[in-house]
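Sequence in, structure out.
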Amino acid sequence: MSKDNKILVEVRNLKKYFPVTGGLFFNKTKEVKAVDGVSFDIYQKETLGLVGETGCGKTTVGRTMLHLYEPTAGDILFDGVDLNSLGERELRHTRRRMQMIFQDPYASLNPRMTVGSIVGAPLDVHTKQNRKTKQARVQELLDIVGLNPDFVNRYPHEFSGGQRQRIGIARALALNPEFVVCDEPISSLDVSIQAQVVNLLEELQKRLGLTYLFIAHDLSMVRHISDRMAVMYLGKVVELADRDEIFLNSLHPYTQALMSAVPVPDPDLAEKKDRIILDGDIPNPSNPPVGCNFNTRCPVAKEICFTDEPEYREEKENHWVACHFPQKLQS
C-alpha cells in the first residue's frame, strides 16, 4: 500500500484464550491459546488476506477484532480509538463502522425471517428509520449485491448458496461500514460461484471505499483479491508481506510449504515445481511447543528453535517474519 494510506485498524499483541474445564466441579484445567500474540495493521481501502491451516486461529482473530469475542489481552485500535477502552454504548455505536460476512450462508441467515427482515435488521437496531425509508434502503442493498429487489418477502430456503451469501453481504453493508471482516465467505460455495462473489466484493470495495480482512483457505483466491497477506500458524502470525512477495520470496519455512501446495495450471511447470511436504500434524493449541511453535514440523529447526520464541520483526522493508533462520528457497 502507498505510504499515504491511513492505517484504519491496528492490532497489537492480541490474545484470545478459551478455558478448558473438567473435573467434578468443572474447574478450569487449562487454556486453548487460539490467538497468541498477533500484531498487524490494515490500511484504509486495502484488503489484508489472512491464511493458514484449519484451527490456526484465523476466524478467532476476526471475531475478536470486532469484539464478538472479548480479547484476553492486547489492543485493537479502530481509526485511532482503542476498542478495549469503550463502554457498551460507545462500542455499539462504533460497531456500525465494522461488520462481518460469515462463512456459512446456510447457518448465518435465520430461516424464519424474510430477506427484507434479515437485511433490514441492522437498520432496526442502529437507526430509527420509518418503514418506508427502511424498505427502500433494503431494496437498494439487494440491487447493489445483484439480487432482485422484489425478493424482500422471500425466505432463505428459496435461494441458492451464492444468493444467500449475497444476502449476507447486503446485511453487512446496511449501515455503510468502513471495515468488513470476510470470514471465508466463499469456502462453502461452488467454484463457479466463488469467482462471482469475489468479483462482487472487489466491485463493492471500489464503489464504497471498503477495507477488508479476507480470511480464506484458497491461496490463489487470496492472492487475487489481497494487497498484502498474513500467514498464521498455531495462533501466531509467522509472516506478513505484499501478496506477490509472499508467493515469490517467502522467508518462513511454513509459508514456503503453503506456497508449494498452490496448484499450477501449466502441467510442464507443475512437474518442475518442488513440493514441500511437512511431517506430523499441527500441535495442540492448549499445549503448544516450547520455543518456536513450528519447531515440531520445521525442516530447518535448530537447537535455539526449541528453547527461544523467535522475534516477529521486519526482516526487510514491509516484510515481517517470525523465524530464527529466515531464508529464501533455492531455485
